[in-house]
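Chain A, query sequence.
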Amino acid sequence: MGAWKFPSLTRRFARTGFGLCALLVVTGCSGDNKLLATSAIDGKPAGAPSSAYGLSNSKQAEPEPFNPFNDSPPSSYGRREVLTNPSIGEVMKVGALPEMSLGRANAPVTVIKYASLTCPHCRRFQANVFPVFKREYIDTGKVRFIIREFPIGRSSGNATIALRCAPQSKYFDLYARFLSQQGRWVSQNVRLDNIFKVASQVGLSRAKFDACLKNQDLIQGLNWVKDRGRTLGIIGTPNFFIQNKLVKKVLGIDDLRALVDAELGVKQNIAVAN
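Chain A, predicted structure.
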């Protein structure tokens, strides 16, 4: 009896282990997910633009610059300085790319979400939490909401390039489409055609998409956003800043209400005191 059960148990374990590994590869939301990065590198499509993947055509082993597709900082950077208690000015510092935001520019509270387009937690937040939060806080002028890109893995990196390649007026539309349609384009291997199919829904042409994959200014701009995020303490997605307070967890609508209302209360108390 034992001789019959053991092989069956072994096969069951192997199947379960394989499924778990595949799930980690596709849906990881950690900023240090080496498994995801390695699998994506191995899955580079033939003929894809090397610049889009942060790869060098040189055969010499040279330090690779920081790029939005690498989930672990290069060793040449050494120990990274992390700002444990950044000021609001440090949090709001921007690079070459403009902030992508919704709501009044002078809203009393700013909420920043660091997101990866392959992150299932970001997808659920967008579907279940964001519509209520937008209606109650953004549309009413209480909150300025900012998305900052923190791509994890090469599929997310290339989709992020497409996101920034589309017209700014279509940014949040395409952002929502990438999240809601994750099952159509997220996989263990990078699928540029599937990424483009989503981006084309907001009018992005294939010629522009391909050109953006080679656009070093755009890629370096995304490099800066992710690198700056790590300096501010971002470790994965979704991570949030409520004003200058970093929250490293998934937030529900009740969590957001409590955090934002506390900040609004501080603002109101200051106004009354003055």
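The chain is about 50% helix and 10% strand. Residues 1-28, 32-66, 73-78 have pLDDT under 50 and may be disordered.
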